[in-house]
Each structure stands twice: as C-alpha cells, then as structure tokens.
Amino acid sequence: MRLILLGAPGAGKGTQAEMLNSLLNIPIISTGNIFRAHIAEGTELGIKAKRYIDEGKLVPDELTIDIVKDRLNQDDCKNGMILDGFPRTIKQAQALDALLVELNMPLDKVINVEVADEEIIERMAGRTVCSSCGTPYHKKFKVEKVAGICDNCQGKLIQREDDRKETVKKRLKVYHDQTSPLIEYYKRQNKLVNIDGIGSVEEISLRVKNALGVN
Ligand code: AP5
What we know:
The protein is of the alpha/beta class. It is 48% helix and 15% strand. It contains nine helices and eight strands. The chain has a five-stranded parallel beta sheet with strand order 2-3-1-4-8, sandwiched between helices. A hairpin with a 5-residue loop joins β5 (127-130) and β6 (136-138). Residues 7, 9-15, 30-32, 35, 52-53, 57-59, 64, 85-86, 88, 92, 123, 127, 136-138, 141-142, 162, 171, 199-201, 204 line the site of BIS(adenosine)-5'-pentaphosphate.
C-alpha cells in the first residue's frame, strides 16, 4: 500500500505512521525525521535544514524533493510506503506525482488527520521524541514504559527544539498557508480520506484502519 499522511504539525501523523508500519510492514518516509538525522550528524544538508526548521519555516522544495526521490528508489519501498510530512507544498505534490508515475508506484490513499489548532498547541507542549528512531511520545497521552527511554529502540527521549510555543504557532501558520491547499489537490484526485484526529490514539488508529480496510 502507498499512503500519504497529511495534517497540521502535531496532528498525530507520526503516531499513526508507527501504527501502520507495524501493521503493514512498509517503511515510513518522514522528511522531518530525515532532516533531524542529518542535523544530528552535522551534514551539509543538516546545517542548511536546521536554519529553516528552528524558525518554523519549510525547508526549500528542491532540497526536500531530492531526498524523497533518493528514498523512494530504495528497495524497501517496492512493496509500499507511508509518506509522513511529505508533500507539504503544491510544488512537492506535483513533483511526487511525476516521480510515482516514473517509478510505476501509484498512490492508494491520502489520510488527512484533522485536529484544531488549540488542541495541537497542548499536544506539542507535552511531546517527547526518540533521539534515535523518532518515535513520538506524550507526557499524558502516550507515556513510555521506562521514563525517558524509547519503547521501540531504547533510545533517549528528548524534546524537539521546534516544539516551543512560539515556533509551533509559526508552523501552524505555514501549514495553513502552504500545506492545507493539498487537501483540495488530493480531493480532486479522489485519493483523500478525512479522519477526525480528536480522541485517544487507539480510537484514531481504528478510524485509519477502517478507512483503509485493514486490521
Ligand atoms: P515534521 O517532523 O514532519 O513535523 P510536523 O509535520 O510539523 O509534524 P510533527 O512531527 O510535529 O507532528 P505529527 O503530526 O507527526 O504528530 P505526532 O504523531 O508527533 O517536520 C518538522 C520540520 O521539518 C518542519 O517544520 C519543516 O521545517 C521541515 N520539513 C519536514 N518535512 C518537510 C517538507 N516536506 N517540506 C519542507 N520542510 C519540511 O503527535 C504529536 C503529539 O501528540 C505527540 O506527543 C503524540 O504522542 C501526541 N498524540 C498523537 N495522537 C494523539 C491523540 N490522538 N491524542 C492525544 N495526543 C496524541
């Protein structure tokens, strides 16, 4: 299955991507996680991306599209993939359409997770993520088994720099200006499924599974 997870920052895309990865055994391609790995390694790309991410802005399309192109060409994407946080602009969506045609990898569905801005601000304030594999946790809504340690890979949990309240507000503005037009874009392609993102993680997972007809 080939899927896109669409939604505002903090809507729960990464959380649902983890669930789908366990269920369907297909890789997650998270551009945010790829950028954070480059930042941690201090690569040239990481240094460039950090400036934009810390300010709550999008990383330029050219850099982002190239990363996804490389990743989609890897063998583990042959049986499907979950795109989390890409595309985020109309230009990225058009580039992805062209790439998927070239690779003969038609898209199945675009899951749009809908959550109001006020709820997102609360979620981000309590979020931690694994510094190694990127799995998201929450102090109240998704608590790890051993404090500060990732359940999946035993990596150390950290708070993301861009989860500060002022940066989150900027990221939400960027989402409404540049990413939300993709809802209409994929609606026109008959690929869009809207999922109410309010409820427990398990409730949202059930909605996603029902929408995809998997369990
Ligand atoms: P990225 O890492 O993609 O961040 P994002 O899209 O802003 O999304 P988040 O990871 O913040 O949230 P999420 O929707 O995955 O929610 P999560 O599951 O963690 O991108 C970061 C930056 O990189 C961007 O700002 C940009 O600069 C750059 N970038 C990345 N991709 C790019 C692109 N394509 N083009 C250009 N630039 C790009 O959940 C959030 C919290 O809520 C967690 O704590 C979680 O445990 C909790 N939670 C989840 N579900 C629920 C629930 N149902 N109830 C209560 N709490 C819940």
